[in-house]
Structure formats: structure tokens, C-alpha cells
TrEMBL record:
Cofactor requirement: Ca(2+); heme b
Catalytic activity annotation: 2 a phenolic donor + H2O2 = 2 a phenolic radical donor + 2 H2O
Gene Ontology biological process terms in this record: hydrogen peroxide catabolic process; response to oxidative stress
EC number of the protein: 1.11.1.7
Name the record gives this protein: Peroxidase
Annotated ranges, domain Plant heme peroxidase family profile: 28-328
Length: 328
């Protein structure tokens, strides 16, 4: 690696750290919250995520999505982790989330090292960051100090963005959480890692239009046949397909190139390109000539910090759970 590349990476990391610190401290959380009460907190979470990732790399996108699904419902309070009937975990958008065992493992180790100190909400926020790093993304400083929520209701999951939502609906849902259009595009860019099931996009491949048997016209014509081969009309709806074709295991901006090329898997993802209000942000992440460029890794870290501070509970609000998956 030459000096210019190294200096560039140092600049990106430095910028991410400063952004995270300033954003986090303004919301009641702060970077290094456990520096005196549990100095090994972040390293314990990191090593736990690394250990699980080595045996099953799919936990990385699982943990990233779990954090997202937690923050959009009752704020970032680990309510997604609570077991029991009619909890968030049982809501349809959350049924395929995975990685709970990683959080439980980290919590067990943290309770042994620092009993009653580190919240499940903070473990989830840290694990999401560590998952991005393990898939070749850039790091960022995670503000901590969240408390765990006591309430988890499946009905509240209605606030989650849906894979068939229009861009306008997505923007409304993000705005309700204090996130703008750039945050929306950056955070959806988290789909650069991981997979989805055929059942969530197969409708785009067959009988999509009311005038015939064609596929969604926003899909690249050559790509349609590839997807149809992977997801036959009456085939296994649970079969998993990479969300970022050609780079599903690496955190990079190729997800946006796929949207530009009509190769977005989920309908809501592809709409980021077909809708003019979000296309410009996608183009900036791609470095389109004539537009002020945006560095995806930097902006993703910035938006993750903003998202991780949605409606957080701090101080005397909430609790520090001894078991993250306790029954509601």
C-alpha cells in the first residue's frame, strides 16, 4: 500500500472517530462510557463477534440488521432481544433475524467480568459496528451509555421500513426517527452484505405488471433470467440470494453500482435509483462526475451513530438486563 492510500485511510478513520464523538455526546451517550466501570467491554464484544464470525460469517449482516430493527422500534433499547409471546421478535419483519446467540454470549462474558454494568443495547450497537469491520468496512467510534427497555410489543414493528414501501414512505419513516434522505440511502447501503429470501422479491420476476407476464421493468433484462433461475416461480421461497450481487460478503459501495445497473434485489432498494430524490445520493456515493462525491464508509458510520441514538434510554430510564433475552 502506498503512502497516499495509507494517509487516506487514516483520515477516514480520524473523521469517523470525531463524528461519532460529537454526535454521540450530544444525545446523552458518549464514546468510552465504560472506560472506568468495565474497561474491557468493547474488546469482549469484539472478540465474541470475531469468534462467531469465524465459524459463521452470516452473523455479520444478521447483527447489523438486528441493530437497525431494534432502533426503529422503541429506540435503540434492545427490546428486539426480549423473548415471549407478541414481542418484537415475533413480528413478521423480525422472524428471520439472526445473531441472537452472539449477543447472549457477549452478555454472559460481560456479566462475568463486570456484573450489571453493560447494557444489552450497547452490546448490540457495538456488535453491529464490529460486524461491518469484519466484512472489510471502516470502523467508527460507538457512543455508549444506553439502558435497556422493558417493553417489547410485536405491534410496534409496523414502524419498520418495508421492502415494498415507496421512497416517500421510507423517507417519512426515517424522518420520524430524525434521519434524513442521505441517512436513508447510506443505511440501506448496509445491504452490501448479506442475503434475502426468494419469497421477498420473487413477485418482481413473474406477473409483476398488470398488462402481462413480465418482470418488474426496473430490473435489468439480462438479470431477470439469472434471478428466475435462482428463484423459480414455484420454487423454494426460503432460498437465500445475495443482496449485493457479486460482493455479498464484502462491505463496499458496489451495492450502489448494482442499483445503477438495474440489479437491485429488493424492490425498495432498486427504487433508490428510480426515484429522483434518492438517485442523486446514490450517484454521489458512486462518485459520478459533476457531483460532489460522498465516501460511503464515512457516511455510513456517521448515519449509524445518528441511528444508534434514536430514542435512547439513559441514566435512570430503562435498566441493565442480566439476561438479554429475558421473557417479557
Amino acid at each position: 500500500m502506498d503512502g497516499s492510500c495509507l494517509n487516506g485511510r487514516v483520515l477516514v478513520v480520524t473523521l469517523l472517530l470525531s463524528i461519532a464523538a460529537s454526535l454521540g455526546e450530544s444525545q446523552g451517550t458518549r464514546v468510552g462510557f465504560y472506560s472506568s466501570t468495565c474497561p474491557r467491554a468493547e474488546s469482549i464484544v469484539r472478540s465474541t463477534v470475531q469468534s462467531h464470525f469465524r465459524s459463521d460469517p452470516t452473523v455479520a449482516p444478521g447483527l447489523l440488521r438486528m441493530h437497525f430493527h431494534d432502533c426503529f422500534v422503541q429506540g435503540c433499547d434492545a427490546s428486539i432481544l426480549i423473548d415471549g409471546p407478541n414481542t418484537e421478535k415475533t413480528a413478521p419483519p423480525n422472524l428471520l433475524l439472526r445473531g441472537y446467540e452472539v449477543i447472549d454470549d457477549a452478555k454472559t462474558q460481560l456479566e462475568a467480568a463486570c456484573p450489571g454494568v453493560v447494557s444489552c443495547a450497547d452490546i448490540l450497537a457495538l456488535a453491529a459496528r464490529d460486524s461491518v469491520v469484519l466484512t472489510s468496512g471502516a470502523t467508527w467510534a460507538v457512543p455508549t451509555g444506553r439502558r435497556d427497555g422493558r417493553v417489547s410489543q410485536a405491534s410496534d414493528a409496523a414502524s419498520l421500513p418495508g421492502f415494498r414501501d415507496s421512497v416517500d414512505v421510507h423517507k417519512q419513516k426515517f424522518a420520524a426517527k430524525g434521519l434524513n434522505t442521505q441517512d436513508l440511502v447510506a443505511l440501506v447501503g448496509g445491504h452490501t452484505i448479506g442475503t434475502t429470501a426468494c419469497q421477498f422479491f420473487r413477485y418482481r420476476l413473474y406477473n409483476f405488471t398488470t398488462t402481462g407476464n413480465g418482470a418488474d421493468p426496473s430490473i435489468n433484462a439480462a438479470f431477470v433470467s439469472q434471478l428466475q433461475a435462482l428463484c423459480p416461480e414455484n420454487g423454494d421461497g426460503s432460498r437465500r440470494i445475495g443482496l449485493d450481487t457479486g460482493s455479498a460478503n464484502r462491505f463496499d459501495n458496489s451495492f450502489f453500482a448494482n442499483l445503477r445497473d438495474g440489479r437491485g434485489i429488493l424492490e425498495s432498494d432498486q427504487k433508490l435509483w428510480t426515484d429522483a430524490s434518492t438517485r442523486t445520493v446514490v450517484q454521489r456515493f458512486l462518485g459520478i462526475r459533476g457531483l460532489l462525491g460522498l465516501t460511503f464508509n464515512v457516511e455510513f458510520g456517521r448515519s449509524m451513530v445518528k441511528m444508534s441514538n434514536i430514542e435512547v434510554k439513559t441514566g435512570t430510564a430503562g435498566e441493565i438486563r442480566k439476561v438479554c433475552s429475558r421473557v417479557n
